[in-house]
Amino acid sequence: MTRTIKLLLTATTLIAGFCALPATAAAQPDYGGPPRITCSSDDGHRNWCDIGPTRDREVRMVRQISGSPCVQDDTWGVDRRGLWVDRGCRAEFILGRSEPPPPPITITCSSNDGRRNWCDIGPARDVRMARQISGSPCIQDDTWGIDQRGLWVDRGCRADFLVRTGPPPPPPITVTCSSNNGDRNWCDIGPRTEVRLIRQISGSPCVRGQTWNVNNRGLWVDQGCRADFQAR
Length: 232
What we know:
Elements lengths: L1 H18 L16 E5 L6 E3 L7 E8 L11 E4 L2 E4 L4 E8 L7 E6 L6 E3 L6 E7 L11 E4 L2 E4 L4 E7 L8 E6 L6 E3 L7 E6 L11 E4 L2 E4 L4 E6 L1
Antiparallel strand pairs: 1-6, 2-5, 3-6, 4-5, 7-12, 8-11, 9-12, 10-11, 13-18, 14-17, 15-18, 16-17
């Protein structure tokens, strides 16, 4: 009888100790690539997600899930506590170690005959104009741009361009970007430069160059525009 009681007490103690172990949440590896994690500010307040040691850690957003904008260093970022999101941001992030990018190469692309001409840039899609050479204006998405064939120039544009080579471009993402208060708002699209509107949600018109566009800060919307965009 006494031995049975002792065995029952020992088993109860072991079960209680096991149940008291703290639960941990960490990024799960995607065996086809770097680890991914979904981090959410569902209550509108700042929330931290565990990404392990943050030293030399690179975090980038790959897919916005929330209707509220996810903008780096505004509604999401990384600090000593880990990855944080705020003000309703909910998104999927990729974790990886930071490595210095390769230096860009410079190429000259010319529309000498006034017609559209393509210049080979390989798989690279991160292109910036460094110096206009022609008298004809070189304006992104008007007289120069990037498409599936490469870098194109048109209507007499001739310029030097900086092309970043290296890893393949990031996968395309779909982002819902909103100007809910009628003011200009930016949405993070990472290093992506090609953006197209795929579905207008707002009653206010979404017109490229007027109520939405892309600049150095990312994708912006204005004057009540709200839409789904694809960025690549």
